Amino acid sequence: MLETWPPGLLLVLGAILIGMLRGQARTAVVLLFPLLALWAIWQVPNGVVTTTGFVGYVIEPVEGSPVRRLFATIFALMAFTGGLYSFRQARWQELSAATLYAAAAIGLCFAGDLISLFVCWELMAIGSTLVIWCGDRPGSRAAGQRYAIMHLTGGAILMAGIAAHSVASGSVDVVPMLATNWASGMILAGLLVNVAAPPVSAWLADAYPEASATGAVFLSAYTTKAAVLALILLFPGEPLLLAVGTCMIFYGIAYALLENDARRILAYSIVNQVGFMVCAIGIGSQLAINGAAAHAFAHIIYKALLFMSAGVVVYRTGLHKCTDLGGLFRTMPLTCACGIVGALSISGFPLTSGFTTKTLISEAAMVEGLVALYFVLAAASAGVFLHAGIKFPWFVFFQKDSGLRPSDAPWNMAAAMILFSFLCVFIGVNPRPLYAMLPYPVDYDAYTPGNVLFYLQLLLFSGLAFFLMLPLAKRTLTITLDFDWIWRVALPRIAAWALGAFDAGAAATKRIRTSRGMVLNDWVQRHFGSDGTFSRSWEIGTTALWVAVLLSAYVLLHYL
Amino acid sequence: MADVQYERTTMKHEPDHWLVHPRTIRWLGVAFAVVLAMSLLAQAVVPIKSNAGFAAWPGFAAAYGMLSCIVMVVAAKALGALLKRKDDHYDA
Q1: Percentage of residues in chain B with pLDDT exceeding 70?
Q2: C or N: which end of chain B has fewer Cβ atoms within 10 Å?
Q3: In chain A, how many H helices and how many E strands?
C-alpha cells in the first residue's frame, strides 16, 4: 500500500508524528521515516503516476524520471543523516520543521505540474523559515523574517508567472521552456530567487548562519538544490543562465574571501557552487545536465559535511567568528578531519566527489566549444580551493591557538560526519554508481592522467597562493555589505525620507490655510462646508417647492 | 542550546602539539615544495591534453591557478575596502 503514497507525504506524516511523540519513539520517526521515504522514492516509476484535477487543470502530484529520483534520493539521504546529526541536540520543533522542509523538497522533485510545484515551493519556504526561527542567536528572529519576506515575494513572482503561463498555454505541465515572454520570464525570476542569484542572493548568507548548529545543516541542502532541479526541468539551455551562473560563482568567492563568520563563509560558497550548476544548466547539453545533477548530488553531501563540522564547533564553543577560533585541531581531531574531507571535496581535489562531478561540467563546456567558460570555471575551481578548501579549515582548526580546548563531536554528530565523509571519498574514488543514476548515459572518465595532473597543478598552486597571501587574508571583526543593505538600510531610509517630506508638506499646507489662504478658506467653508449653502441638507417641503418652481419655469419656457 | 564546555588554557607549561612545532612546520613547508615541484615535473611524463592548445603548455595550470587566485584576492580586497563595515553595523 505504501508504494502508492507520494514519498513527500510520508515525511509530512513524519513531521507531524515528531511533534506528537517523544523519547525513543520520536527518534525512531526522525531516523526511519527518511529511509521509508527513500524506499518509496525508488518505487516511483518513470512517467506520470497520479493525476487529479483542479479548477480545470490537470494536476500530476507524482511524476517519475531519473533526474527527479536522483534529487529525491539525495534529499531523503540528507533528511536521514541530518536527523542522525541532530536528534540528540536539536529541539523537537526544529526536527519537525526540518522534516517538513525535506518533505516539501521531495514533493517538489516529483511535481509533474506547476501548481504542485508551487505548493511544494511555498511549503519549503515555511519549513525553512521555521528552522531558522529555531536558531538561538540574537539575530535569528529578524533574519528569519527577512528570509520569509524574500521567499514569499519570490513565490508571488513565481505564481504570477505560472498564472500567466497557464492562461497563455492552457496547460500547467512541467515542460522545458525558454524565458522568451513575460510569463516564462517571471517563472525564471521566481526560480532565481531560490537559487540565490545576485542581486536576490543575500538572503542565504544572511539567514543560514543565524540558524542553530544543527538547523544550518538542513538549510544548506534543500532550497537552492530544489531550485536547481526546477531549472533543469523548466529551463535547460536557457542562455541567460550562463551569465547568472558566472556572476554567482565570483560573487560567492569574493564575499567568502572577505567573511569572518565561519558558517557565513560556507553560506557564500553555496552560492558559488550552485553557480557551477546554473552554468551547466545554461549550457544545456546532455553532458552538462548530467554534470549539474551529479554536482548537486555531491554538493549536498560535502556542503552538509562542512556545515556539520562547523556546527560541532558552534555547538561546543558557542563561537562562530574566525577571529575567535583557531587551533581546534588539538582537541577536535575528528571534526577537523571530516571538515578537511568536505573542504577537499568542495575544491574538487582528485579522489573526492567534487572532482568526479565538477569536471563533468567543465568537460561539457569544452565539448560545446565554450573554451572561455571552461577557463572561467577552472579559475573558479582555484578560487573555491582558496575560499572554502583552505580558508575554512585553516581559520577554524589551525591558524593561531585560540586557547580553546572543546571536546570533539558527540557520537551521533560524529556518526553523521563519518557517513558523509565516506560518501565524499566513495563518489570520488568510484563515481560509476552515481553516474548510473544520472538522467543521460555517461561516457566520461575523470581519471585520465592529463586531467588529474591539470587539476592537481591548478589546486596545489592555488594553495601556494593562499599561504603566500596569508597576510592579506588576515581576519578582521568586520562584515561586508551585501545586496541586503538595499532593503535593510537604503529602503527604510528612503521610506523615512518620504514620510518626512509628506509631514513637511502637510505642515506647509496647514500654514497656508491659517495665514493668507484664510479668506478663501472662509468662503469655501461658508458655501461648501458642512453647514454651507450648497451642502447642508434641506427639508423635503423646500425641495418639493423648488422642484415645482423649476418645472413651472420649464413649462412656461416651452410655450413661449 | 550550545553545549559550551571548554576551557581557555593559557598555561605556559602545557607542551604544545607536535604539529605546531617549528621543526614540523619547516618539514611541512619542504614537503609542500617537493609536491609542487613534482606536480610540475610530472608534466614531462604525463601530457595534458586539451582542446585549447595553451592548456598543454608546461606549468600552464599551475601558473593559471596561482594567478587567478592572486587576482581574486586582490579584487576581493578592493571590494572589501569599499564595502567592509564593523560587524555590529546592522545592530547599531
Answers
A1: 80
A2: C
A3: 24, 3
Closest partner residue to A406 among B5, B46, B80, by Cβ? B5
Please calculate the CA angle A291-A293-A295 and round it to the nearest 5 degrees.
Answer: 65
Complex prediction ipTM: 0.86
Q: Do B2 and A316 touch (CB under 8 A)?
A: yes
The answer for residues whose C-beta is within 8 angstroms of residue A83's C-beta and 6 or more apart is A30, A31, A34, A95, A98, A99
pLDDT tens sequence across A234-279: 999 999 999 999 999 999 999 999 999 999 999 999 999 999 999 9
Measured on CA atoms in the order A159, A164, A165, A169, is the torsion positive or negative? positive
Residues 6+ apart with CB under 8 A from B18: B24
Q: Give the residue from B6, B60, B91 with the most A CB atoms within 10 Å of its CB, the best one to mutate.
A: B6
CA angle at A357 for the pair A272 and A470, rounded to the nearest 5°: 45
Q: Quick one: cell of A127?
A: 519549513
B-chain residues near A401 (CB < 8 A): 16, 20
Average model confidence (pLDDT) across chain A: 92
Nearest to A90 by CA among A99, A423, A142: A99
- Delimit the domains of chain B by residue range: 18-47, 48-84
